């Protein structure tokens, strides 16, 4: 089953024992906005600083949470912009050749261990 941004933060909040109001206060956001995030009903993905604050307060990897929210961490966005000419070809090759994409992902995962 695919994990959604909202489901992940809701479960992490509950695991930490926070109410929505308590966590919203820590994040300096309105609890109704947090509710929309948890229910995957926000009109737009939260800003990177809100996501990073969520991750820190809930002990979730910040960059993974940013990607799950549908955003790209700023430092990666900067890298992609610096290499903008090569990125379409790389992404196209990964989409057209799932085996190549899987090898790339496996290599990255093994380096992270």
TrEMBL record:
Lineage: superkingdom: Bacteria
InterPro entries the UniProt entry points to: Cro/C1-type_HTH (IPR001387), Lambda_DNA-bd_dom_sf (IPR010982)
Listed Gene3D superfamilies: lambda repressor-like DNA-binding domains
Domain HTH cro/C1-type: 9-65
Designated name of the protein: Helix-turn-helix transcriptional regulator
């Amino acid at each position: 089953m695919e994990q959604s941004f909202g489901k992940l933060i809701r479960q992490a909040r509950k695991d930490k024992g926070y109410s929505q109001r308590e966590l919203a206060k820590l994040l300096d956001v309105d609890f109704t906005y947090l509710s929309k995030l948890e229910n995957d009903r926000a009109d737009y993905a939260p800003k990177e600083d809100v996501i990073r604050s969520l991750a820190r307060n809930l002990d979730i990897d910040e960059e993974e949470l940013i990607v799950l929210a549908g955003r790209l961490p700023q430092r990666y966005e900067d890298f992609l912009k610096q290499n903008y000419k090569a990125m379409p070809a790389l992404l196209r090759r990964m989409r057209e050749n799932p085996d190549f994409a899987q090898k790339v992902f496996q290599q990255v995962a093994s380096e992270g261990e």
